[in-house]
Amino acid sequence: MARYASAGHLAREMIRGKLRVDPVYRELLARGIADARKIVDLGCGRGLLFSLILGAQGNGNRPALHGVDIDPSAARTASLALGDEATIIEGDLATHAIPPCDVVTLLDVCHYLAVPVQNRLLEHVRAALPPGGRLYVREANAAGGAGFHAVRIAERVAAIARGDGFRHFAYRSVEELSQLLDAAGFTVVATPMSRGTPFSNVLLEARAPA
């Protein structure tokens, strides 16, 4: 948390709570994401994933980190927290060019994008990855019953708090996302990623053919 000393008390408490209850970060570390040479986090927010990766690497060989977020406040916080250990860009995922990399992450991001934008983005990610490259997508499963309704409520409340309460969310089922990734040329494995939460979140690991 020392990296976020200048972020303000509220931001630090939100980050601390996210780390405490959200299983996706530890899961990604367990899957060896920190061993990649270059990681691109699309919708990186305050840079929490990168902060954990850098902590896991200690003083060893660190990956090149490239993050993009459309929220200027979040991108600024990430830049301050990570300094010259990561490149953070304020940008729109609908138009941002994805650099060549080994791993791409899209954590709770796709539903903010219109369906055609989601489709194009996944194609661009596939083009940026080498054989054996990995894409991790964490999203709510639109076919997830009560857990999905919990996600919808939480997202709407958060949108209202941001002054964006009428925005549209483009949720999709795990089956639909898996088919989309398969059509883009990936091999896909889906894992429930809602442990300790009321939400119907799923982590999709999509690998480019070796």
| Strand residues, percent | 15-25%
The end-to-end span amounts to 37 Å
CATH superfamily: Vaccinia Virus protein VP39
The appropriate CATH architecture is: 3-Layer(aba) Sandwich
Helix content estimate: 25-40%
Record field, number of beta strands: 7
- Please state the structural category: alpha/beta
Radius of gyration: 16 Å
Number of domains: 1
CATH class category label: Alpha Beta
Q: What is the strand arrangement across the widest sheet?
A: 3-2-1-4-5-7-6
Indicate the low-confidence ranges by residue numbers: none
* Separate helix tally: 7
Q: What is the CATH topology classification name? A: Rossmann fold
Main pleated sheet: 7 strands, mixed
**H/E element order:** HHEHEHEEHEHHEE
Instruction: Choose one word for the global shape.
Output: globular
Mean pLDDT: 92
Describe the structure in your own words.
This protein is an alpha/beta fold and about 210 residues long. The protein has one domain (about 1-205): Rossmann fold, CATH 3.40.50. Helix content is about 40%, strand content about 20%. It is built from seven helices and seven strands, in the order H-H-E-H-E-H-E-E-H-E-H-H-E-E. It has a seven-stranded mixed β-sheet, with helices on both faces. A hairpin with an 8-residue loop joins strand 6 and strand 7. The longest helix has 16 residues, at about 145-160. The chain is globular, with a radius of gyration of 16 Å.
